[in-house]
Design a protein that fits this description.
By secondary structure, the protein is an all-alpha fold. Helix content is 42%, strand content 2%. The two termini are 38 Å apart.
Length: 403
Amino acid sequence: MAQAFEGMPNLGLAWGDDLGDGPAMKRFTLMAMLLTTAGFPAISPAADVSLKLEVRRAIDRGVAWLKEERHESGYWSDTLYPALTALPLSAILMDPSRERGAELSPEDTASLDWIVSLVKRDGGIYGKGLGNYNTSVSMMALLLANRPEDEKVILQARRFLTNQQQDYGKRGEQDHPLDGGIGYGSSYAHSDLSNTHLALEALYYSKSLVQDKPEEAAYKLNWDAAIAFVSQCQNLPETNSDDWVSGDSDNRGGFIYFPGDSKAGEQELPNGKVALRSYGSMSYAGLLSFIYADMDPSDVRMKSVLQWLAENYSIEENPGMEGEGLFYYYHTMSKALALAGVNELKLKDGSEVNWRADLCKKLFDLQSRDGSWTNPTKRWWEGDPVLTTAYALLALERLYPGL
């Protein structure tokens, strides 16, 4: 089960501007943040009206399919993993055709209530295991829904996540490669990059809820330790001295799953050294982690991962993994490059690609007649069309404002 998910989500919000004042403004501001760049210079590309209309049509079909698949009790796919409900619910709530401030439908309310029903005494939101993963993803759906009555649940979930940060050696010291990260929870508690970046995402987007609450000061993540862990997952000799790290052109700047473990396997270099291979989905997860930590875009870690992603650009596969985790890859790609303010990627041969248009058209090609998406390579539960459809919709909804 440790590899059941390599990760999951994101959101977005209304396409409005004036957010107003008052207590609800913090939540609306949060959702507006999801559609902006994160401290990077943003250059608006020329609008492609035709492509935008096609995206809307693909989203309409996908959302309609998801609504048909929802259980009458409000959940999708599995009652043990609220993340599998939070993701499709987020995709429905992010639909650009949904009016800003529109009331929740009875069906969406039922899904939210079902998620909240799984809150545990420790503040986590989960069924059986995988507490950190499910809590992080569920928090994002609750934030997107913007129900005032869920604020207490979100604050409890924040405390749960911060309490899961790992410290394997001397307390407070970065003396173990897994220190600072977050894992699935329970028997799979060891830190990994997928869970860490999802926890950082949920904490980043919920931080406005604690700014005026001094009593929450004790429940803060050690962000320095978290980014130290993320850096330990990067194939970059300048900042990571682990034995598996390689500075060769194939791997430099990319990321692996956790220190010493790459799902893309090993690579023997010409000099005889055995390196762990960088791969696409975790490299985007690493980039997102740096963005959530407000890392300076000029930092060598940031510049190196962007270079690796450009040089290994693909919409045909998850680089290093072929078809495995493909829709998770599309989802993290759309979030990371949009937040980084990247409109075009410069490839190895010097050519530039409009990654937004490429990814949109690829998702059009992969959409089934009934509006769903699925991955024939079923690893990490991507054989479940609810999960892959949610990933695809969340990617398209992230791309839509930038077209």
